[in-house]
User: Fold OLC1v1002324C1 from Oldenlandia corymbosa var. corymbosa.
Amino acid sequence: MEEMLLSSGSSSFASSSSSSSADVDQRLKQQTQLPLLSLNHVSFVCKSVRKSVRFYEEVLGFVLIKRPSSFTFEGAWLFNHGIGIHLLEAEDPVRGKNKAKINPKDNHISFQCTNMDIIVQKLEEKNIEFVTAVVEEGGITVDQLFFHDPDGYMIEICNCQNLPVLPLSSACPLKKVPRSTSATQIKSSFLGNTAPKMPPYCSGEVEAIMMENLALDMINISY
Assistant:
């Protein structure tokens, strides 16, 4: 009888230990999933906030939005395409970044685009210098276009959403975003053909739209 009780107790302990271990593993897994949503904004120090605002409005379609009234320094907030751009007026005009030769390997921000021809036309109308590049990977073609803003910060426009996101190794899980059915084919303007259908989860368009709507709701509340 005692042997049976010991055996039963041992079995219960093993089951409890296994369950506890699984709970710990689950908690550790949840801890690695940081509660991050998306990139909120990029911030630039510029020589002239007014000039930079005009550039981002007219060239990239950004919208000037309300910023906290508690700010006592010169600046502006813009928003569109699921991301914000915050501009700060340089205290020393000389501090602003100086324009240099366009170097695609330099620091830059990049926007995904579904029609490169429209961007090229816009830049040519504004007499903005740009350079282009083409990347080919596994039968997929990616068009890239680089140019500077008024302060020399580099901007890239590309159809990089054509490339699937293939994780190599990481302790953090990759958040997957449902594929947008409205953008299954992206025009490859430079080559005049149509890119292959995007694989699942290679575009963040759905998440970007959700975040944009959320941000706009928050803006309305702030008013």
Remarks:
- The chain is about 30% helix and 25% strand.
- The chain has one domain: 41-222.
